[in-house]
Amino acid sequence: MPLLSIITAAHAGRADFLPSTGESVASQELPPGWELEWLVQEDGSEPHLAEIVETVPQARYHANGQQRGIADTRNLALSRARGDLVRTLDSDDLLLPGALAGPIERFAEHPELHWVATRPKYLDRDGTWFTYFLLLPTGIVRPRVVGDYLMRHRMCPLHCAGLTMRTASVRALGGWAANPRTEDIELLAALSELTLGYLEPEESWIYRMHDGQTVHDPAWGSNLVGTSYLMVHNRILAIRERV
Fold first, then answer.
1. Which CATH entry fits the domain spanning 3-242: 3.40.50.300, 3.30.70.270, 3.90.550.10, 3.50.50.60?
2. Which of 41, 43, 130, 134 would disulfide-bridge 77, Cβ 3.0–4.6 Å?
3. How do residues 216-242 score in pLDDT, each as one tens digit?
4. Strand (E) positions, 124-168?
């Protein structure tokens, strides 16, 4: 029976968000014959989240036992993934109804795809909603399209927190990169250089903004972002020189 593995890297500071994230996972309806597993990998030397996660029937929890960072934590969860497809889900985000069924159907319709990106609905800290505007045409995304945009604008044209990918492809590329700021973008940059993808037009998940997010820390934006995007740029160029 086909299986989709959802990977969530978490830490103790997400304890207030994780129950509703788990509820959104448990409520998903998949295409006939499909099953899911929710792989929650807790970062940090003092784990706190096991009891929360284990209330979700599809959950498989594991703790790092030390502070490793988001890329290592996701990769440790990836090592436990049994699914043919892997979906990222941040510990403070929510899946909307049909969030998983849509990408699964795209892979069935287009067997040549290696990744599907979906669009978020943003919930701001003051409770207001706003739209995440798409920067690429929806539908099939051919190799180099994402990379060209990244190198031209030094920003990603789609949201990496809503990616569903072929597990084997993610593993072949080494998983999430050892990048201090853009570990997910660097993975997508390599994947999208080498394979076909698909961009969904519908909003299928909720990005919850809050003060605890690292992106709201002034040091996050001023420190290492330039170097992080240089790493992405270098990876794209290296792939193009070899392919």
1. 3.90.550.10
2. 41
3. 787 777 789 999 999 999 999 999 998
4. 129-131, 139-141, 163-166
